[in-house]
Amino acid sequence: MRNRDLIGKSDWTPATYETVAAERTAPSQVIVIPITGEVRGAFGIDMRTAEDGTPVWIITHLPTGHRLPREFLSRDAAMACVQTLAGLDCWAMDDPGQMLTHPDALYARRLLASAPGSRAP
Questions:
Q1: Local structure of residue 14 (DSSP, 8 states)
Q2: pLDDT in tens, 22-42
Q3: CA 105 to chain centre
Q4: DSSP SS3 for 61
Q5: In Å, how far are 63, 94, 101 from 105, measured between CA atoms?
Q6: 0.85 exceeded by the pTM?
Q7: Alpha carbons 30 and 10: distance in angstroms, whole number
């Protein structure tokens, strides 16, 4: 499990955590990227610059290191989304495949897709 020592914080705490991404030249390989942001529960948030130059906030699922498929236009919007998603059991898992088949996963995707202050990347 990634970021084990950071999971479960009850308040937003500054931290550096690991994210993962597919290697562009070898998509079956994963690269680990350290990110500096804030963590709470099973999530991390950090500010980045989107491809169109817009500053956005990204939510990362700490146990897997995977970013969620939305960009948030403010820190408050990202924090509100984390608060909404935090109560779902699927986030306690560290296997992405199991998470996607968990009964909460469909509901989580709907909540994420309709999150105020967000957009698709």
A1: E
A2: 877 877 788 999 999 999 999
A3: 14
A4: strand
A5: 15, 13, 7
A6: yes
A7: 30
